[in-house]
Specification:
The chain has 785 residues and is of the alpha+beta class. 32% of the residues lie in helices and 22% in strands. The chain is built from 18 helices and 26 strands. The strands form 7 sheets. A 7-stranded antiparallel β-sheet has the order 18-17-16-15-21-20-19. It has a 5-stranded mixed β-sheet with strand order 10-7-6-13-26, with no helix packed on it. It has a 4-stranded antiparallel β-sheet with strand order 2-1-3-4. The protein starts with a strand and ends in a 7-residue tail after the last strand. Residues 757-785 are annotated as: Disordered.
């Protein structure tokens, strides 16, 4: 029977995303993309396939788990992975801190046997049980061929990081041939036979206890020293079950994983300064930023850190102007302006995605929501029509949607970000100067970006721009494709699409009124005229979703508990509701938010907690997972970090029992005891970590050292031979206008990269102690049966 399935993404045992349900297919195509920062340490990135249950809980079909250290070898590749069975005894995470010691047990008759002392110190990162912290305890056993001594710690309540600090003793029988009196070592035969087995469990009270993980340590580790202390990763319980790889099917994945080791800011200053002076270098092709684009031409992600770095330092517009001017010099026909995948177009694409996020939300999201909710058929291809469909009705539906989107776009000039307008104004001026005879080129230079590369792409893939939580179903996807093609036609200013189906949708707009609206819109977003907002725009929903909210405690009688609430953030207010679509139970003006900070897990024994400090009592919220918690805090911080009454310090815990649990201050109005997250003073209120962006650029240059060397060779060859040579065919992918200036920049880049690599080598600790908290031992897991 065909199944209705969905796929989830988990960090260890914590679900962070899930796809839509795919109906009745044994070969579902989910086709969804998820991008996120990983805010905490983890061991596995896992993908679970579930069968949707109608009247019962969802049933796991299989999983793919990739260990963190193996993500690099899969990164950037699209691969099939065999689904593995989901066994409760294999769903483990966390680490345990152990100490083992051998000492001699003295009896009345003198030295007797040896005593093994096992100290269970603590655990970290145990999984959540039913979304809450677990009630863990540990069992400790000395196991061997003829013995199995079991002992147990006390249960620790509501914590994923329990501190046990309990010591257990086991007698280790000494061989009769043992005669030493001073060096108390276990005999070789005993070492090979005995091991300590530590199991972690969640106390189920009335329910069955849940296995959390195990580790096994052979006593032979004490052969040379009588003392051992280390961290161990918890392992699955070996149950001996074997499954053929193809029993459960396969899952096709493409994972892109990037992990950066960021050094102190001072280490990045030379490289950062070299990149920031790029707009002033003549010619621009000899600048460090342009060289980066040349060397990493095939890697689209290489441009993003450069754009973010220049954006943060207000150097992006002059750089974009310079590289666009260089591209225009090499453009021979006005109707092909900015059509290629060049450094200029890639940089402007990324700039629009960064600064135009809220602009897209306000302009497209209301209409896209209507398209998704109404789900009217818009198919106008007779071959693809479904039975009972009317092509005239579908055409009317399509034209209605297109009209609404274009009306929303052409009336949105007041909301277009200033930085985008600055770039469009520069492009328009340069295009007119390059092709003075063509009256349309000043508009096509702008429309090729704002229509073709911005609005059209967002309509086609709303999920990628956070306009919708999931990818559309096939029918809505077809509607969006038709609308997107219509927008692309406008991006090709003056040239109509050859697609007759799209031209049908454009019939309604081939009139002077529509073209006048488009011209006015392009004029307004690319002119020097100051845009003034009416101030009457609708509130823009930035994020909403279900959370656990702690009761505010306004009533004197009653328990302060956690309740499910629907949380919504707009550019004006934060509100929570009993359910989605219901009237707000509480509204907080974003201007009154004074801090948005993490809350210590110990405050309520719950993970993923954050607090919103405002004029009244703090609002305590628990997000569904660690990624969502970071997203809530980020969006709230972006719209409140410039508030006048922001706090300098906050309390990371709660005020209970007449005192703050963090600092023991007695007054509920006592100043905070911990500095607040430093608010960004950057324009656009963007969180840009310049050190991390520079580190990414360094990594990209290092990974492309071969092309770096080729570019150095090309400069030397061109400078020596003066003029066209055979060797230049090999270097045709590089833009080298001035070989001496370019070589000089390459030399400077080489020097700062070598110094930065030296700094990395000094700080990296390849011999980090195995068994430390940061480098725990992967304990063996013995399979039985």
């Amino acid at each position: 029977m065909d199944l209705c399935t969905f796929c989830t993404i988990s960090l260890d045992q914590e679900e962070v995303f899930r796809t839509k349900v795919f109906d009745k297919s044994l070969s579902p195509f989910y086709g969804e993309d998820f991008f996120f920062e990983i805010p905490r340490p983890f061991q596995y990135l896992s993908f679970y396939i579930y069968a949707k249950g109608s009247f019962q809980r969802d049933l796991p079909v299989g999983k793919v788990s990739i260990r963190k250290k193996d993500l690099y070898q899969h990164s950037g590749k699209e691969q099939w992975f065999s689904l593995q069975p989901v066994d409760p005894n294999s769903e483990v995470q966390g680490k345990v801190h152990l100490e083992m010691r051998l000492s001699e047990l003295i009896t009345d008759n003198g030295p007797g046997c040896q005593q093994l002392l096992v100290r269970i110190i603590e655990c970290q990162g145990l999984p959540l049980i039913s979304g809450q912290n677990c009630d863990p305890y540990a069992t400790v056993a000395l196991v061997g061929p003829s013995r199995s001594d079991h002992k147990k710690t006390k249960v620790k309540k509501k914590t994923s990081d329990p501190h046990f600090e309990e010591t257990f003793s086991f007698e280790v029988t000494r061989s009769s041939s043992y005669s030493k009196k001073s060096n108390f070592q276990v005999e070789e035969e005993d070492i090979e036979k005995l091991e300590i087995k530590v199991d972690l469990w969640n106390n189920g009270n009335l329910a069955q206890d849940v296995f959390l993980g195990e580790t096994r340590v052979s006593i032979k580790i004490l052969r040379n020293e009588n003392f051992h202390k280390a961290w161990y990763l918890l392992q699955p319980k070996g149950n001996g079950n074997k499954h053929k790889p193809d029993d459960l099917g396969s899952l096709r994945l493409k994972v892109n994983y990037v992990e950066d080791t960021v050094l102190p800011s001072s280490c990045y200053k030379p490289l950062c300064n070299l990149l920031l002076k790029s707009p002033d270098v003549k010619p621009i092709s000899a600048s460090a930023a342009h060289i980066l684009g040349d060397i990493c031409r095939e890697r689209y992600e290489a441009v993003l850190p450069l754009v973010r770095l220049l954006l943060h330092h207000n150097r992006l517009v002059p750089f974009l102007t310079a590289v666009a001017a260089l591209e225009l010099e090499n453009t021979q026909e006005a109707n092909t302006i900015f059509r290629g995948n060049s450094l200029a177009t890639r940089c402007i694409d990324d700039m629009m995605k960064i600064v135009g996020k809220s602009y897209l939300m306000g302009t497209l999201k209301p209409v896209l929501d209507e398209i998704f909710d109404s789900n009217k058929s818009c198919e106008i291809d007779p071959i693809k029509l479904k039975e009972g469909d009317n092509v005239d009705v579908n055409k009317e539906n399509l034209q209605n949607y297109v009209q609404k989107i274009f009306s929303s776009i052409t009336q949105s000039s007041a909301s277009c970000p200033t930085l985008m307008c600055d770039v469009f104004r520069s492009l328009r001026h340069m295009a007119s100067k390059r092709f003075p005879v063509d009256p349309h080129v000043q508009y096509s230079a702008v429309s090729s970006f704002v229509f073709l590369r911005f609005f059209a792409v967002a309509v086609l893939s709303p999920h990628s721009f956070q306009l919708r939580p999931h990818h559309p179903d096939p029918e809505i996807s077809r509607t969006l494709t038709l609308i997107s093609k219509t927008i692309q036609t406008l991006g090709s200013w003056g040239s109509l699409s050859k697609n007759k189906l799209v031209r049908l949708a454009l019939d309604l707009f081939h009139n002077s009124h529509f073209r006048f609206s488009c011209v006015c819109f392009l004029d307004e977003i690319s002119s020097n005229v100051n845009k003034e907002s009416s101030g009457m725009e609708d509130a823009l929903i930035l994020k909403e979703g279900e959370v656990q909210k702690r009761a505010q405690g306004r009533k004197r009688i009653g328990k302060r508990n956690f309740k499910k609430r629907w949380l919504r953030v707009t550019n004006r207010e934060l509100s929570y509701h009993k359910h989605r679509g219901k009237e707000a139970l509480c509204i907080i003006d974003v201007k009154n938010i004074r801090a948005v900070e993490k809350l210590d897990e110990s405050a309520f024994n719950r993970k993923n907690m954050f607090q919103v400090v405002h004029a009244e009592k703090p609002l305590y919220v628990q997000a569904g997972n660690c990624v969502e918690a970071c997203e809530w805090m980020e969006v709230l911080s972006q719209f409140s970090r410039c508030n006048e009454r922001r706090l300098a310090n906050f309390h990371p815990s709660t005020y209970t029992g007449g005192a703050w649990q963090c600092c023991k201050g007695l007054s509920d109005r006592a100043p905070g005891c911990k500095p607040c997250t430093t608010p960004m003073l950057a324009n656009l209120q963007l969180d840009i970590d310049c050190d991390r962006e520079t580190e990414r650029i360094f990594s990209l240059l290092t990974c492309n050292d071969g092309k770096f060397q080729k570019m150095e060779d090309a400069c030397a060859s061109i400078a020596v031979y003066q003029g066209p040579q055979r060797e230049q065919d090999e270097y045709s992918k590089f833009t080298i206008q001035d070989p001496k200036e370019t070589f000089q920049t390459l030399k400077q880049l080489r020097n700062v990269m070598e110094e930065l690599q030296t700094q990395h080598d000094r700080r990296n600790d390849p011999t980090a102690k195995y068994g430390s908290l940061g480098n725990p031992i992967v304990g063996k897991s013995i399979q039985t049966g």
